Amino acid sequence: PDAAFRPWAHHRARRNRKEDTMNRILIATDGSPSALQAIEVGLDLAEEEGSEAIFVHVAPAKDVLPVMGGFGMATPVSTPHELGEADRACLDDAVRIAEELGLEAKTKLLAGDPAKEIVAYADSVDADLVVVGSHGYGAISGALLGSVSRGILHRTTRPVLIVRQVPQRVEALA
Length: 174
What we know:
two-stranded antiparallel sheet
């Protein structure tokens, strides 16, 4: 990312103490544009700090399928979700980005509630920072739709960096 989007860069010169070093940065991804920006910021930090980058994606634990019931009404039926290639795709994309930057990264595919699973996994790997994207929904939409980033903030005691989705500029064609 551009230096203008790296507010943490000025802190590097002041941080010389061993205990301030970030060893593991956990970067959550769901394949969305905001997650892509979180990947870029997280990898930039990992490179600067010499940290291990770990990508995590949380797939749904259950799939909800509509089944036609009586009177032509669809009734939702919940079935266990089987993890597959589609679930790994965003992790594979994240690793490709890391490799293009010359960085190594680990991945973890989980299933369940995204905020709960990300926080539990961050604890299990002793992550020094959790990086997650935000879709930038307003207060009303965010409250109605729920927010993984908000859920992570409320559940963890670890530092969290929320990367807000920045709209891409489109050059006017003359």
